[in-house]
Specification:
298 residues, mainly alpha, MetI-like fold, 13 helices
Length: 298
């Protein structure tokens, strides 16, 4: 009787998850295969052409100066975005962990930007980072001018070579609250007895945070780095909303859009898509392996 019930429960569970499995196979892995197939084709224009082209699209990317700009911009944006979110999120979490009055209000306030899409964030920060001067000055530059901080006035995302660094500012503003929530959860999971024992042994607050708190937060830091890293690699809407399609601020996702839908080079666009998939997988797969290995050891 138990075996029959077990079989019935197993069959019911399989039937319940089978639509999701089918959808996953079609709309994720099926499309990945199709993108990979198109990336090795000579498809140019609206008429499909799946004639085999080998690795020519990928080799073309490696020799493309614009793609070199994309990689450079992605590296700069990723480093600034990830480091900025980690530092600001950690500082906010440490402040909230001090038992401040109105903690719930501040926690909600810091998390609120995450509820906004990158498009909305980009539209707002495009005004805040308005590079215009003179009578048209506005946003942060107007604030700096009013406070007598003229040395902070700059061209923001129109700065030659380093304009992509300005795009990281609104991204940090939006996602630092998420990082704060991760760190705050990690801090609340650390037993208070560890801190008390360290204080009894004569450790200062600085030593407690350096020797106990921060090392215990390493798994949280790793998780945050993976999440923020894959977001930065796929950034598209924020750059479009702030600066539009500019080669100086180009990243692989924007280049993929312009190549595929503006230039109709579907093979080259699919190759960029596979490049993005591989870079994200390089981040995510080791993290998943590390996480599953830890769970197995526990």
């Amino acid at each position: 009787m138990n075996l029959k019930k077990l079989d019935r429960d197993t069959i019911t569970a399989i039937l319940l998850i089978s639509p999701s499995i089918v959808a996953l196979l079609i709309f994720v892995y099926g499309f990945i295969y199709w993108t990979l197939r198109v990336s090795t084709s000579k498809w140019v224009g609206l008429t499909p052409n799946l004639e085999w082209a080998g690795l020519s699209n990928y080799l073309g990317l490696m020799n493309d100066p614009r793609f070199h700009i994309d990689v450079r911009n992605t590296i700069i944006f990723t480093l600034l975005f990830v480091v900025g979110c980690l530092l600001l999120g950690l500082v906010l979490a440490l402040l909230l962990d001090q038992g401040l009055r109105g903690e719930s209000f501040f926690r909600s306030l810091f998390l609120f930007p995450m509820a906004i899409s990158f498009i909305v964030t980009g539209v707002v920060w495009r005004w805040l980072m308005n590079p215009a001067g003179g009578s048209r000055i506005s946003g942060l530059n107007l604030l700096f001018d009013s406070l007598g901080l003229d040395f902070l006035i700059n061209k923001w995302y129109t700065t030659p070579n380093w304009g992509i660094a300005a795009i990281a500012i609104p991204a940090i503003w939006q996602m630092s609250g998420f990082t704060m929530a991760l760190y705050l959860g990690g801090l609340r999971a650390i037993p208070e007895e560890l801190r008390e024992a360290a204080r009894v042994d004569g450790a200062s607050e600085y030593q407690i945070y350096r020797r106990i708190i921060l090392p215990l937060l390493r798994p949280v830091t790793l998780s945050a780095m993976i999440i923020l890293g894959h977001i930065s690699l796929k950034v598209f809407d924020l750059i479009i909303a702030v600066a539009g399609k500019q080669v100086a601020l180009d990243v692989p996702a924007v280049y993929m859009w312009t190549t595929t839908f503006d230039g109709l080079f579907y093979g080259r666009g699919a190759a960029i898509g596979i490049f993005l998939l591989v870079t994200v997988a390089v981040l995510v797969i080791p993290y998943l392996y590390f996480t599953l290995r830890q769970e197995a050891e526990v």
